[in-house]
């Protein structure tokens, strides 16, 4: 008797959800990335009673009626067609997994109206194996996603959820990161009906700094150096704000590094920054920074991990040295004139 069988789509999605949907914050991360990929300029996020309800609404280009059920299917994406596209991917998403994963572990409603369409349409799922039916709905141009009762059908996952306050902190952190990645987009975050962040789109440098201040705190921007350095030969550009050595922190909690608009965690980058601050920070203190690295997308592989938090640089050494040298120079410029070695 044969013992091998195909997993049902729902089970396959729930297993994949284990990688992508760790907690409510990961849901919001995926939904926000989708809104940004859809060209939204205005995004509203609501969270109520922990995982009871999360709602996100954007004014992006929307989803066609016939694409709605597909949007919830695994490995269905409008963002890449072939492997070559992955080599120079500019969108935040490309795996076609997020909505399928989220909808397999929650009660999800997706409502959308495509640019130029006369009507909006809606699909709903309850974490079951069924073809979702599409019904007409009222909605302005753009997309809303409502996620209720996260992990209602995966008790093992639900057990790992922390208090509402803790989960909301994580969710807020995700919103901050994405708000820092796109200062040109307006964000509003509400928790149980109360507005927590209201971020207006920034065009000018001053507005940009205001956004950094509202996300990172005014003390940071007051004690930060701004930089914008390009290396012509390699096409690398590093810009943003770094905290003065006097603004060091006891935790590495104010460190944002974006590569082509995507927040990343990377050992090589962390090392380069640490080295640049090496001589000016006491042991155990951490620098604060909001930095944006821009480079040819072909020189960085983003398909390293399902959460897309990690990247692989084709020219690791070059990137490391560029970051180190750039920051080192900026920091050296403001150091109280270091006395030449040996001088009194
Ligand atoms: P991916 O983002 O990797 O393509 P998702 O599961 O997150 O996969 O989304 C599937 C598809 O649904 C996307 O490729 C996109 O076409 C569509 N979609 C999802 N969210 C939105 C949105 N907010 N606005 C417009 N289209 C969306
Ligand atoms: Mg996505």
What's the CATH architecture of the largest domain? 2-Layer Sandwich
What's the arrangement of strands in the largest beta sheet? 5-4-3-6-2-1-7-8
| Ligand catalogue | adenosine-5'-diphosphate, magnesium ion
**Strands, total number:** 15
SS strand fraction: 15-25%
CATH superfamily of the largest domain: Histidine kinase-like ATPase, C-terminal domain
Shape: globular
Kindly identify the CATH topology of the largest domain.
Heat Shock Protein 90
What radius of gyration results from the CA coordinates? 22 Å
Number of helices: 11
- Could you give a short account of the major beta sheet? 8 strands, mixed
Low-confidence stretches: 338-344
Structural class comes to alpha+beta
- Rounded average pLDDT: 91
Number of domains: 2
End-to-end Cα distance: 87 Å
CATH top level of the largest domain is Alpha Beta
Helices and strands, in order, run as HHEEHHHEEEEHHEEHHEEEEHEEEH
Helix content: 25-40%
Keywords: DNA damage, DNA repair, Endonuclease, Hydrolase, Nuclease
GO molecular function: endonuclease activity
Organism: Marinobacterium aestuariivivens
Protein name: DNA mismatch repair protein MutL
């Amino acid at each position: 008797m044969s013992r091998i069988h195909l997993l049902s789509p729902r089970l396959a999605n729930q297993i994949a959800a284990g990688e992508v949907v760790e907690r409510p914050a990961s849901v919001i991360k995926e939904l926000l990335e989708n809104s940004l990929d859809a060209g939204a300029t205005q995004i509203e996020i609501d969270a109520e009673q922990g995982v009871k309800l999360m709602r996100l609404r954007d004014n992006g280009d929307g989803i066609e009626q016939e694409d709605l059920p597909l949007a919830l299917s695994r490995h269905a994406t409008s963002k890449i067609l072939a492997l070559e596209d992955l080599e120079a991917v500019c969108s935040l998403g490309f795996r076609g997994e997020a909505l399928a994963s989220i909808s397999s572990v929650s009660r999800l409603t997706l409502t959308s109206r495509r640019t130029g369409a006369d009507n909006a349409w809606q699909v709903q799922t309850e974490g079951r194996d069924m073809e979702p039916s599409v019904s007409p709905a009222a909605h302005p141009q753009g997309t809303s996603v409502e996620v209720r009762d996260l992990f209602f059908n995966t008790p093992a996952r639900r057990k790992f959820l922390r208090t509402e306050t803790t989960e909301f902190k994580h969710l807020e952190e995700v919103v901050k990161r994405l708000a820092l990645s796109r200062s040109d987009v307006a964000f509003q975050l509400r928790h149980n009906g109360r507005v927590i962040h209201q971020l207006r789109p920034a065009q000018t440098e001053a507005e940009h700094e205001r956004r950094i201040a509202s996300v990172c705190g005014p003390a940071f921007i007051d004690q930060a150096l701004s930089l914008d350095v390009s290396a012509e030969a390699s096409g690398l550009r590093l810009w943003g704000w770094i905290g003065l050595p006097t603004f060091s922190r006891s935790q590495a909690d104010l460190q944002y590094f974006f590569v082509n608009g995507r927040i990343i965690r990377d050992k090589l980058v962390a090392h380069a920054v640490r080295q640049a601050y090496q001589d000016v920070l006491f042991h155990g203190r951490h620098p604060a920074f909001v930095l944006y690295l821009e480079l040819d997308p072909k020189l960085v592989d983003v398909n390293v991990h399902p959460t897309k938090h990690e990247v692989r640089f084709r020219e690791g050494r070059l990137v490391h040295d560029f970051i180190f040298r750039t920051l080192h120079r900026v920091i050296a410029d403001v150091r109280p004139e270091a006395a030449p070695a040996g001088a009194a």
